[in-house]
């Protein structure tokens, strides 16, 4: 058996909303393998990409006393909340 190919790695970071003043942070290791499959009649080249989750954490901020969800309201439908 003969191995032939290369491996490349890269760290990826992702931030996602996880609630009111909470952020989900994930760190991935992306592994990209360029492999050659040797057969008696030809050589087949393939690229395989996979991600491995290394760490995950929730960043918690201060929770407000009140929360207003006024998304989608037009100016004429709302009133001035803060002077």
Summarize it.
By secondary structure, this protein is mainly β.
Helix amount:
under 10%
Order of helices and strands: EEE
Form type: elongated
Which sheet architecture does the biggest sheet show?
3 strands, antiparallel
Question: Number of DSSP helices?
Answer: 0
Strand content: over 45%
Number of strand segments? 3
Mean pLDDT: 82
The helix-and-strand class reads mainly beta
Give the terminus-to-terminus CA distance: 75 Å
Radius of gyration over C-alpha positions, nearest whole angstrom:
25 Å
| Main sheet: strand order | 1-2-3
State the low-pLDDT regions, or none: none
What does this structure look like?
This protein is an all-beta fold. The protein has a domain at 5-62. It contains no helices and 3 strands. The chain has strands at residues 5-19, 22-38, 43-60.
Structural descriptors:
83 residues, mainly beta, three-stranded antiparallel beta sheet, single chain, elongated
Which SSEs are present, and which pair or pack?
Blueprint lengths: L4 E15 L2 E17 L4 E18 L23
Antiparallel strand pairs: 1-2, 2-3
């Amino acid at each position: 058996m003969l191995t032939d190919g290369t491996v490349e790695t890269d760290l990826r970071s992702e931030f996602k909303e996880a609630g009111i003043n909470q952020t989900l942070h994930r760190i991935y290791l992306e592994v990209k393998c360029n492999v050659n499959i040797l057969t008696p009649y030809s050589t087949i080249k393939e690229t395989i990409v996979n991600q491995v989750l290394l760490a995950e954490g929730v960043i918690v901020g201060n929770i407000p006393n009140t929360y207003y969800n006024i998304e989608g309201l037009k100016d004429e439908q709302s009133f001035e909340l803060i002077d």
